[in-house]
Amino acid sequence: MPSCLLCRKFVLASVALLLLAGCMGGGVDYPEVVPVTGVVLLEGQPLEGATITFAPLTGRASSGKTDAYGRYRLFYKKGMEGAVLGEHRVMIRKSVIDPSFVPSREESEMDAAQKQFLEASGIPLRIGSETSLDPDGSENSRAPLPLKPPLLSVVADRYNGPETLLFAVVDSRDNVFDFAVTRE
Asked: Is the pTM here over 0.70, yes or no?
């Protein structure tokens, strides 16, 4: 009987040691990242609210948002600022609601039915607003927008997809990259 108790204690101690060893050395090993900042201008003016993404040739991309002055800083992941070293494709995106869009009767009815269903389910929802922004950033008063309004890209396609014309090489030195983009 005592040998059985001794075996149990040995097995429990072994399992505890294995669990402890697994918890101690199991940290994620991220690649080296360095801070990347800059400014994005659209037609010579700061571009606010754009998403800028640096995509390395292999590995995880970093991205950030531009502020009112067009300034950005990249994040590799939440709480981890920077981008990996090496060559990156740079993509800049910003979309706005199409100011010329007028929903069809069917689309309006579908939105109304969907809104009614969501409200009956207890989900608070506002469909659009009385004011939207035109692509140039000016306010545009209009009827409420549909649940999924069509969007227009503010930045020319040649800057915002996998075929982007923008590239940057991130190295261990100062990484400040400014970009001037156009609508067309």
From this structure: no
